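REVIEWER CHECKLIST
Item 1: Sequence provided? yes
Item 2: Single chain? yes
Item 3: Sequence as submitted:
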Amino acid sequence: MKHLWLALMVMTVLCACGGRSHGDLSRKLDSIARLENKERLRLQGIMVDEDNRDPFEIFFDSLNVQPLPLTCSDTYVTYTPNFTPMADAMLVYLGIDDVHDARVIALPENSNVRVMLISGKPSQEGPITMWLYTLGLDYKVVDRLRLHVAKTGEGDDQATFYITSDFTIELENIDKITRRFKRDVYYIDIDGKIVKSEAKTNQN
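Item 4: Structure as written out by the authors:
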């Protein structure tokens, strides 16, 4: 309730000033939201410094870095060697609301784009899944790509992925119904978007 009153006070002051724009109000409310998020992170034991660094920036800079190239397997997705547990509050801070029991590792920096792998479950009872996330210079999520879903039975798809040292991402899969092999290739553009390369995608 105290946060609501604080937001209302900000709105009242801005309206009284008359000349302030809707953008000014949005920035003020964003600042309040950031303060609330930082307090929530502190309560969960996540380090937040006082010189206005983004809490996720601090967390990201502390992560282990996975060297490239990387060939993935069920073992890698399930046991996530050198990954760091990721608190739910940190996921919420990034706007990620569909990953549970998350663990994360950074990849080498790609130009001005930061890249990480997150392993977790899409639901509380779901299979372990791995995603690749890209982040901008502001440490906000730009894009993501599902890389792998761990097998839960003999009939599951046979899937794997490969990431080269220049961040070409290759996904390979044998469909459990058609038994056809499919290979999709992606790259990360300068803005951090994950783009499918149609010329390199093939299906046999």
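Item 5: Key structural point noted by reviewer: The helical segments are 2-17, 22-43, 55-61, 74-79, 88-94.
Item 6: Recommendation: ____
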